[in-house]
């Protein structure tokens, strides 16, 4: 039984939620007591109280805590990865990579504890000094999805804690055990009680609790990773309280395959980014935009790769395992209704859930135990299709064609998302023109749409986010505010713009003609 942890103490809830292994539905990972809105607000109040002392801890010392957090994760890497695989069905190799992302993030922010720099600014008046400081925002509420149940939360937690903030973390219900495990490691690393509070709650309760906490002045920053639809509601709520949230939302990520592309590499990348994690990443490949000259050959190779890809038991060597949870399985079945008569359907022996009546050739394990779905590859996708314009969040990739690079860029931008993108080419001009024209916050050249490094900014534009960025030094702007200070030691009141020494140049002077 998992309960919320507020101020270091477990707090019971009312409604129970059962987190099950999506690969083996009979395997109950945890039973979770979900908190109500009053409890959520109480967590924000506890964070407010604890944050005052945490902010007084020197930043290099806070960095040491973040570094210890990373080392504890490293010591528990295999165990935490196994839990990720068990609770959300992510293949074990991918889960190990996700845990490594936490370690990398903590290593980076360990050093930032000694580089939380401000600036000394020259004054326009004598005997006066100007300074700038980064100060913590205060209390941050972090709401995360469960497709990356430990890596993405670390993108918020590590910098937020380093900067002197207290955090109320609301993870996805279906990843509750992963959240508790990660929180335990943070607390054991030295994060004080109340500085990190873990609240299990459903979406409606979280919204109501956040509304109340914002209204009472208990929350200074909201970080949200999830769907575009919910992100809009969070943004509207924060806007009413004059706050700018950090929104990391969905994606409809394009991959342009130029006529000079290395098709073998392009297919490998499309398979990984389109079907890894069963297409349930915000950075999953949405549509391949292939040049007409290479479309047929690319499609043939890609279809063969998808058809041959091992799917099934996530503890085995597979490209992907089950859907994360029943709600995503239902959502993907709805997406399959967008497949039209003009689409050519490739990639597997059937469409929909993998069953004894609709088997997947080469399936690894027993499909009857979990939420397994056939990979779908759709050729002939049109810009007016919902499968082209909307995030699908499942193992489906569309393919369309283009003739000119300008047309490819227009197609890449058409859905209105702007998270990740990729282009495969051997021509630098194509790569740079694509980067210049595409609206995505992240661009890959000869690499997949999925994948992030801990020291590179991560985030999107348009329907993918509000321009905020995570990772690297750029995320510090989410969890600190700039404070300026001026110190006048002249012994008199020097008034800016009034008591400033002025220089009067001789503007009428001209060089003598005899010099020319």
UniProtKB/TrEMBL annotation:
EC number(s) reported in the record: 1.2.1.3
PROSITE patterns: ALDEHYDE_DEHYDR_GLU (PS00687)
InterPro entries: Ald_DH/histidinol_DH, Ald_DH_C, Ald_DH_CS_GLU, Ald_DH_N, Aldehyde_DH_dom, ALDH7A1-like
Domain Aldehyde dehydrogenase: 17-484
Keywords: NAD, Oxidoreductase
Presence of keyword Oxidoreductase: yes
NAD among keywords: yes
Any one GO molecular-function label of the UniProt entry: aldehyde dehydrogenase (NAD+) activity
PANTHER family per the UniProt record, alphabetical: ALPHA-AMINOADIPIC SEMIALDEHYDE DEHYDROGENASE (PTHR43521:SF1)
Subunit structure: Homotetramer.
Superkingdom of the source species: Bacteria
Protein name: aldehyde dehydrogenase (NAD(+))
Signal peptide residue numbers: none
SUPFAM superfamilies in the cross-refs: ALDH-like (SSF53720)
Pfam families cross-referenced by the UniProt entry: Aldedh
Residue positions of the active site: 248
Family the UniProt entry places it in: Belongs to the aldehyde dehydrogenase family.
